[in-house]
Amino acid sequence: MTIRVAVIGAAGRMGSHAVEAIEAAEGLELVATVGREDSLDTVLEAGAEVAVELTVPKSTEDNVRFLVEHGLKAVVGTTGWDAEKLARLEELLTAHPESAVLIAPNFSIGAVLAMHFAELAAPYFDSAEVVEIHHTRKLDAPSGTAVHTAQKIAAARTAAGLGAVPDNTESDPLGGRGAVVDGIHVHSVRQAGMNAHEEIHFGSMGEALTIRTDSWSTSAFMPGIVTAVKEIPHRTGLAVGLENYLSLRTA
Amino acid sequence: MTIRVAVIGAAGRMGSHAVEAIEAAEGLELVATVGREDSLDTVLEAGAEVAVELTVPKSTEDNVRFLVEHGLKAVVGTTGWDAEKLARLEELLTAHPESAVLIAPNFSIGAVLAMHFAELAAPYFDSAEVVEIHHTRKLDAPSGTAVHTAQKIAAARTAAGLGAVPDNTESDPLGGRGAVVDGIHVHSVRQAGMNAHEEIHFGSMGEALTIRTDSWSTSAFMPGIVTAVKEIPHRTGLAVGLENYLSLRTA
Amino acid sequence: MTIRVAVIGAAGRMGSHAVEAIEAAEGLELVATVGREDSLDTVLEAGAEVAVELTVPKSTEDNVRFLVEHGLKAVVGTTGWDAEKLARLEELLTAHPESAVLIAPNFSIGAVLAMHFAELAAPYFDSAEVVEIHHTRKLDAPSGTAVHTAQKIAAARTAAGLGAVPDNTESDPLGGRGAVVDGIHVHSVRQAGMNAHEEIHFGSMGEALTIRTDSWSTSAFMPGIVTAVKEIPHRTGLAVGLENYLSLRTA
Amino acid sequence: MTIRVAVIGAAGRMGSHAVEAIEAAEGLELVATVGREDSLDTVLEAGAEVAVELTVPKSTEDNVRFLVEHGLKAVVGTTGWDAEKLARLEELLTAHPESAVLIAPNFSIGAVLAMHFAELAAPYFDSAEVVEIHHTRKLDAPSGTAVHTAQKIAAARTAAGLGAVPDNTESDPLGGRGAVVDGIHVHSVRQAGMNAHEEIHFGSMGEALTIRTDSWSTSAFMPGIVTAVKEIPHRTGLAVGLENYLSLRTA
Q1: Are B129 and C133 in contact (CB under 8 A)?
Q2: Considering only CB atoms, which chain A residues are within 8 Å of B219?
Q3: Cα torsion at D149, D154, D156, D159 (round to 10°)?
Q4: How confident is the model at residue B2, as a pLDDT?
Q5: pLDDT in tens, D198-211
Q6: Known catalytic residue: C134?
């Protein structure tokens, strides 16, 4: 049973990788690619069941509305989905219960798993810190993913009744201890030749657990997109975050 | 509500660490320590609710039987529990439903979490390999934990419908590709100054996920023992493996 | 003082990267590119002082002879220079003392430095092992670089009077201890998404030193080529190995 | 030819490890141990050739003076040797040219090698950053070793004519980029269960070189002390820094 897939935003950096990934994936057939000038009708005419939407914030809501109204299922990687847009989409999906939409700010399976693992591990260790390494063109520090990871760790510690991480630093005039996000220290390395990397450190008396993700290029997002496309035929309604489409429980 | 704890095998390497850890843990009170020459009655007289059993394979079954028959709960770190002994214990627990026994071959929380994470991650990556590093006194290779990790990864891949890991090696006259356990390659490094360490590598197009555990000493097992002692009052019956006492699901 | 540079083999994978790197480098001017169909006279006509030779084993000797005979200096990345060819080249250079040739099997500065550091560190640690990680298209194991690293470590240990590395392994039925090169264990990991990586482990009582190199693409060789092109105007004669053109001593 | 060794400060943490290490080392014979109450004459009476001085800042200068005046050679690990004391010692050694003193603030061979390698590598990479990880009892950040490493890297970059490391960070309100020491970013992680660890990151287009040292305990300093004791019979005069006693050049 091959799934018929369209890519909207096929000419962009993510889109062109997605086209290649879908063409290469077993069980998926690429039936349409839509660029900025093309009509979305192409998707319908090609008989696509699933559309991968990788365009720009100002177009994504209209595109997804069109897909839902025509009963297609949509895997969306475009950013810009604020609470208001999500509320409108949820309402629309109620009226089209046969449709399904996954909105994923991060299609890196490694990053999504790492964050999930960090949440599970956090209650069991005295210390937790995050080190992120990115290319030198990055404008902000710490990275959004690292901040998000620290927040999840902090919440999991609080839920488990843990107090502050142990830290006896008395003198740090230059700020070596880095950023503090909800009580968790986050360090940002900028290194030529690197892309996007994160190392989550947990430690207790006599032991350490370290979770590292490396993402070298846009192609790192493709396994996540392919996984989502294969899963969405079995889903209905709205999901935000790729983790909802992964199987994160053992038997 | 303080939990009253006895340590059986208190003079051994693990036992003496356990004594210290229980004394240091909030919410636990050490009420008895039992050495090779001492009677188990000490445990009863001291009013212990939970006993930590860290003796030797030939004593452990009798000790645990005594504890169960007297309605205590037992956290057991001694090895040697084969299928037959486990069956006898399970029968005994049926007759004493107020008791509970946790038998844990590995009290390292980091190692237990790492194995769990490896199972969850395995279905999502093309490649998976295990590198373990141990001290140079170790007699066997690969380590039992590494073999077990590889088996779990292999089973998770099979369950997810994945085939063999990609490998185009045609020439490897010296055996550089290491041990193969259920199709997963395992590498054993022996290094002076190290203790017990494992690195689980997952990779796909453009990304990697690496899970590393470091265990530097027997003290690494203490957080696991303390966690188990705190959890066992809420449990009944038999559990094998510390993972059963950890909370491994997010809300 | 700009150095005038030609690239021979400019259409190949290495060559096209070299063209870009030389164009981008301060102090270098790309004055000619030579493809398979082009005459080497182009190099002379363009007034190049240095030529980067990145062709194929069967052409490289003739190309380098031409360059030397015309008094140019040549940075050569092509393989296939056996002892006989090197002897002929050395003789030729005696007749052209104004010329210089660097033949470098590996232009990765990181890899060259790592090997040098491994040699320096080897005498001071009880244990030494090498783990290399490569993409899954690689046909042979262990990698040539890892074998070479192990040989250098072994030689440095011998020179320092060290005996065999400590290893008490008695049982290793699956070959987890990996390849043994001159007494040094080498482990080969094959992982989708990776390119070429090496980790050199040294350990003694209470401490470890780890040297890691990561090379993600052909572009990793460009800093080495640029460094060589900038250095060769100050050199005469033959050098084999980029390490000869690096400054590896502190003041 | 066995070297006869005395340990002064034998009851301290470093001293007691040193006693064990010298007893275990081939070619060394422990002939005297001196505690706080003992006379230094013990060292002379025992016929020691080399003394390892591991006491406290207020005693070390007198002890070393005594050793030099009696023609012994001294390996000194005690801190507190300021410029003034060093000048006096140098003068004293001029009058006793048969003596030799090594003053080493850090006996970890791994740390000394790592710093040396960092200096050698620094000129060849666009980016360089330092991450240090220490136990949670540490009072200051960044660690002295990390600051020293950053200074050495900065000096080596300047000497090679390199400019500032590339960094386009525009927004870092929480200080994730860490401390900046002579233009090099330094990050300080504090983690329960760890001891003293440093990771030096170098990166350029397409490649990375990472040097990591791990020091788990005082025992990590013993190989450095043993190496110094074996080397000092061949030396005269004053040396500051273990690196002066290591062989850091290849043939």
Answers
A1: no
A2: 205-206
A3: -160
A4: 95
A5: 999 999 989 999 99
A6: yes
How near does any CA of chain B get to the CA of A58, in Å?
A: 29
Encoding tokens for residue A124? 């069991």
Q: Are strands B179-181 and B127-134 parallel, antiparallel or unpaired?
A: unpaired
The answer to whether the B3-107+219-245 and B109-216 domains have the same CATH topology is no
> Mind telling me the catalytic residues of D?
134, 138
Tell me whether A114 touches chain B (CB under 8 Å): yes
In chain C, which residues have their Cβ closer than 8 Å to the Cβ of B172? 140-142, 179, 188
Q: Where are the domains of chain A?
A: 3-107+219-245, 109-216
ipTM, two decimals = 0.89
Are D211 and C209 within 8 A, CB to CB?
yes
Residue type, D185: H
Percentage of chain D exceeding pLDDT 90? 92
Touching D: C residues 164-223, CB under 8 Å: 202, 204-223
What SS3 state is found at D67? helix
* D192 SS3 class: coil
Give the per-residue pLDDT at A250. Answer: 56
DSSP chain A: -PEEEEEETTTSHHHHHHHHHHHHSTTEEEEEEE-TTS-THHHHHTT-SEEEE---HHHHHHHHHHHHHTT-EEEE--S---HHHHHHHHHHHHH-TT-EEEE-S---HHHHHHHHHHHHHGGG-SEEEEEEEE-TT--BSS-HHHHHHHHHHHHHHHHTT--PPP----B-TT-TT-EEETTEEEEEEE-TT--EEEEEEEEETTEEEEEEEEE-SGGGGHHHHHHHHHHGGG--EEEESGGGGS-----
Q: Which residues of C touch B192 (CB under 8 A)?
A: 125-127, 166, 203-205
Q: Which CATH architecture has domain D3-107+219-245?
A: 3-Layer(aba) Sandwich (3.40)
Residue C154 CA to its chain's centroid (Å): 20
Specify the DSSP class assigned to residue D49. S
Query: What whole-number percentage of chain D has pLDDT above 70?
Result: 99
Residue C187: strand pairing partners: C131
Nearest-Cα distance to chain B for D215, in Å, is 9
- CA closest to A173 among chain D residues: D141
The CATH number, out of the four listed (3.30.360.10, 3.40.50.150, 2.60.40.420, 3.20.20.70), of the domain defined by the range A109-216:
3.30.360.10
- Nearest Cα neighbor of B79 from B63, B103, B113, B43 is B103
H/E element, B169: none
Average pLDDT for residues A108-131, to the nearest whole number? 96
